[in-house]
Amino acid sequence: MEIERYDTGEHDPREEFGVVHRAAKRVDGVEKVTGKARFAADLYFDGMLHARVLRAKFPHARILRIDASEAQNAPGVVAVITHEDVPGAKTFGPVRRDMPVLAFDKTRYLGDGVAMIVATTLEAAEQALELVRVDYEELPAVFSPEEAIAEGAPVLHEDAPGNIVNHHKVRKGDMEAGFAASDVVIEREYRTQFIEHAYIEPEAAVAVPNPGEGSVTVYGSIQNPFTARRVVAEVLGVSLNKVRIVQCTMGGSFGGKDDVMSCMCARAALAALKTGRPVKMVNTREESIVEGYKRHPYMLKYRVGATKDGKLQAMEIRILADGGAYASMTPFVTWRSVVQATGPYEIPNVNTDVHGVYTNNTYTGAMRGFGSPQIIFAHESLMDELAAELGMDPLDLRLKNGFRPGSVTATGQTLDDHAVSLVEVMQKAADAIGYREKRKAYNEAARRAGSKKVRGVGIAASYRGVSLGGEGVDATGAIVSVQQDGSVYVYAGLAENGQGLRTIFSQIAAEELGCHLEDVVFMDTDTSLIPDGGPTVASRSTTMGGNAVRDAARKVREMLLSVAGEMLGTSCEALRAAGGRVFVAGRPERSVSFADVARAAYSRGELMAAFGWYKGPKVWWDEESGQGRAYFTYVYGCQAAEVEVDTETGRVKVLKVAAAHDVGRAINPATVEGQIYGGVAMGMGYGLLEEVEMARGVTRTQNFDEYLIATSMDVPEVMPIVVENPDPYGPYGAKTIGEPTCELLAPAIANAVCNATGRRIRELPLDLEKVLLGRSLKAARGRRGSEQA
Amino acid sequence: MRPFCVTVPESVEEAVRVLAKWGPEAHVIAGGTDLLVEIKEDRRSPKVLVDISRLDELRQIRVECGVKAEAGAETGRECKRTDEGEGDVVWVGALATHAEVASSPVVRKAAPLLAEACAHVGSPQIRGRGTVGGNISTASPAGDVIPPLFALEASVDVEGPRGVRSVDVESFFVGPKRSALAPGEMVLGVRFRELGPNHVSFFRKLGQRRSLAISVVSVAFAARKVRPDAFDDVRIAFGAVAPTVVRARTVEKALCGKRLDPVMARQISRLAFRDVMPITDIRGSQAYRQEMACNLLYEGLLDLLSGSPAAGARGG
Ligand SMILES: Cc1cc2nc3c(=O)[nH]c(=O)nc-3n(C[C@H](O)[C@H](O)[C@H](O)COP(=O)(O)OP(=O)(O)OC[C@H]3O[C@@H](n4cnc5c(N)ncnc54)[C@H](O)[C@@H]3O)c2cc1C
Fold first, then answer.
1. How close B282 gets to chain A, by Cα (Å)?
2. Mean pLDDT, to the nearest integer, of A722-751?
3. CATH 3.30.390.50 domain locations along chain B
4. What is chain B's mean pLDDT, rounded?
5. Cα A784 to ligand 1 centre (Å)
6. Is the CB of B286 inside 8 Å of chain A's CB atoms?
7. CATH T-level assignment (fold) for domain A1-37+428-469+629-789
8. To the nearest whole angstrom, how far is the Cα of A714 from the nearest Cα of chain B?
9. Helix, strand or coil for residue A122?
10. Is the beta carbon of B283 within 6 A of some atom in ligand 1?
């Protein structure tokens, strides 16, 4: 297939910067560590009511009747709201409109909302929940993808026969020839678990009606304000300009405050309009875990063939993803999976099928990683297993097949317009952990049987498409507005999620304007002030939003420089702006302060604000052949782990992690390292501890006593290795760091454990029993543990 | 969650009076780290909370020897001499927090295994609030303070409408989350004889992670070292492997006086199978817990034999 070439945009060859490429303090750090940041649950409005949601009683049931009369008359209750009160669309969804804002025909998982009580106090609302009578006809349900696709399985959604949410494929080369050319063929099955985002702040929103205009403002812990606005408007049956969404400080999101927050915003808005009063909704931790979507469990079957010298010939991949009750982001999550499923290796013949499947489990959707952690666990375990079969070192096998400049991916994309740094990151991570020496030493140690504590090292590598890729429109905007005293506002269509976007965008604005970082204030996202710039997802903020901020700031700078040129009596081409001054290049003594230029511009009546916009480079995708330029650029990462396994207990202690990530350019190196530390901690939780247990649709791990994330005591020494190969597309060459950091550690640990013990574990997480006894606990489990202990 | 009243008595007598008056409707609250969770989850709905935090006398940790304790005179007993005929009695008040016990010089000297257990409860926040009295009154088979008290053969001082009584620790626990406290009774503290100069001890706990983890299995061990490789006066208790914390009497008997090498230590540790009867729950299966009881004990014994500095105790 002919691959189109695209021009590589503008590349900033500068190596010297004033504000970017330097560790900057988080602009919102002080307010957070001093407890002054305001979260949605902190908001209060006069006359504010509280709403609670009645959840489904059965994971799959027909709703026959809802009788709210008794609840209606309970003390303190102002309104009981059911689907009958929904004036607009009863369902929503980013791809398939299949999720009810309040259940009407059926319930499909236990987190479904069936009715909502709005009352003067939280307690009154809570107590009235028990008074709502719902008659159900329980329906047979399915709790695993295998059950869901079986012949005659109960169907969740009438328009999705066979419970199939979606099917993506990749077809490349000739599988028969590929396997025929292979000396070694192995087939392996891997499984991953449900996991929870575990943001520290549960979902919260407050809706305030503006009765005069028939509009509503919703404040909330909202990852994607524009998505929430669309859902609220559709549910209310009003136009987009009647809904204003204001994002509050976020207590974490990790992809998790999208659909579930759109739904909460819509419910709160419904209640506010119905009662004419502000309405607050805050999920308890238990509700958050039961209602909120999870990372998809995958069942992955891999078959791989290679020549005896280790050259990969063919890979066949079959994946089932548990989508739970609603489609949510499953089509996009599984799309990223299908694109990246082979891992960063050249393989001439590839055949991949990924199916997203409906079940009556909690639905699954976006979570940091977005379809990559599952496939990376599989392909990186597989590479080690293949290496063992070939009698090769796993790193050598990766180096032999890994992408290099000009490599062609499984989807037929030639990697020739950015730095393909896979080999570099692998070598750097391996060197930092001392892979070669330790691998050998530990192999020998393992042969000396009888020791209680055994050590191992393992690595995992990935490539990752930056931004949305073939998922959809990829464009976003920003406003930079300079005030007459030289202070600056930045507004952006993308939103702070705790990842440090405010700081990064402020740095970019300051860099371009030549002002001080302290002069810049980043304004929280408000959908009434800025055009829809798409969602804050896919690690796209720095690349996409950063370019938009840069575009806006440059426009303002141009105007300011022409004013400064007049003030200094020179042409603006000769001027530079940096460090709060505008000066003549090479003659810094001929300068004016940034504030004076701003004052002069103001008094001359200049337009001191500008709108910036950035549209991502073109990508394309052919669903039928599963071929295309899936993403416009990629990042490469490798993490190496050293572990110690206690053979008496199965406890895995991670001793050290080396994490090498090519970020293009680190706009704020401190933030990059912060993302690496956090990503490693999450990756470790995924590998060793975390699992949302669902038993016939019932979530058993409803709080952090039983859903275990890694604590600071568990997280090992982390060596962040920031690799910088500037990218042609990102601002100053910057790419992505948010997600790649959390997708690699689980397989690196599994590989290290295998190096230590000789035991290959193909199912996450590697908890005590799986490591010691090689089997999962789940089947034998009884009731929730805390009821017993 | 139902509404409730809180009363803050100024004396133990007053607390006991309120408890007696309200019977099962009243619950003592100390640090609240267990109780508040249960109230929030509607597993308990008391009408009255008796906040004992002002009863400073219950916060003490002290050595009581030969004489009746002064502050706790009404509860004090004569020091009983053991076969060794030596050793002070230590009293730890119900309101002593895990942090206080863990850092108490008295406890660290007299019963390092108890200090160690307290040092590994929950997190710094939980150790700063949670109390010894709360831990034993909750009577969880996974309560970390309890196995050391078994190994110390401690007794629990209890006061109720009918006065003060002392219950030996093994009879205090009657089932999962069930203690021998009668209605209206509360725990004043625990007492135990300090370990002798030739005694060694350890506490080990296995959790899913290194901190903030409820024990999957825990073991407390105390014994007198009669030779570098042999013990007597062996007392071993396991947590989270039976409806209550249990003494491992089969193992104790087998260990007594036996000269140990790693193989022998392994063999004897395997006998723990006979002393435990764990259940399967979200933290571990029955089979795994059984195995772990043996292995934790074995690891501890090995460290004692090798004289490793970690031998004292370890958790987390
Ligand atoms: C996050 C977290 C982690 C934890 N980790 C651990 C752990 O690692 N190991 C562990 O063992 N426990 C752990 N716990 C449980 C708990 O913290 C401890 O058991 C603690 O010692 C309880 O003491 P408290 O003072 O907080 O008890 P409270 O909650 O005040 O009371 C607990 C129970 O005891 C009763 N009670 C309290 N004092 C008395 C008294 N003097 N007389 C009679 N009854 C009384 C109360 O009525 C109540 O029934 C944890 C708890 C939390 C929330």
1. 5
2. 96
3. 199-311
4. 91
5. 19
6. yes
7. Aldehyde Oxidoreductase; domain 4 (3.30.365)
8. 6
9. helix
10. no
Q: In chain B, which residues fall in CATH 3.30.43.10?
A: 5-51
CATH 3.30.465.10 residue ranges for chain B: 56-193
Q: Atom 1 in ligand 1: which residue has the minimum CA distance?
A: B122
CATH number for the B5-51 domain, one of 1.10.101.10, 3.30.470.10, 3.30.43.10, 3.40.1390.10? 3.30.43.10
pTM, two decimal places: 0.94
| Ligand 1 near B94 CB (within 6 A) | yes
Separation of alpha carbons B123 and B115, rounded Å: 15
Q: Which residue of A has its CA nearest to B43?
A: A787
pLDDT at position A12: 53
Three-state secondary structure readout of A376-442? HHHHHHHHHHHHHHHCCCHHHHHHHHECCCCCECCCCCECCCCCCCHHHHHHHHHHHHCHHHHHHHH
Q: What residue type is A582 in one-letter code? A: V
The ranges of chain A annotated as CATH 3.30.365.10 are 1-37+428-469+629-789, 475-615
* Distance from C-alpha of B29 to C-alpha of B131, rounded to nearest angstrom: 10
Smallest Cα distance from B94 to chain A, Å: 21
| CATH number at B199-311 | 3.30.390.50
Q: Hey, what are A477's tokens?
A: 């905007």
Specify the CATH class of A475-615 in words.
alpha beta
* Residue B225: C-alpha distances to residues A611, B80, B108, B245, B249 (Å): 80, 22, 18, 24, 18
Does residue B11 belong to the interface with chain A, where contact is any CB pair within 8 Å?
Answer: no
- In tens, the pLDDT along A179-209 reads 999 999 999 999 999 999 999 999 999 999 9
Amino acid, single-letter form, for residue B276:
V
Which CATH class name applies to A40-140+197-291?
A: alpha beta
- ipTM for the predicted complex: 0.90
Q: DSSP code of B216?
A: S
**In terms of CA atoms, which chain B residue is nearest residue A788?**
B176
Find the closest chain A residue to B293 by CA distance: A649
Cα dihedral value B65, B69, B71, B76, nearest 10: 140
C-beta atoms of A711 and B282 within 8 A: no
Task: Tell me the count of A-B CB pairs closer than 8 A.
Answer: 88
- Token readout for A608 is 């001191």
| Residues from A in contact with B at Cβ < 8 Å | 452, 648-649, 651, 653, 689, 693, 700-701, 705-706, 708, 710-714, 767-769, 772-773, 777, 780-789
CATH for B56-193 is 3.30.465.10
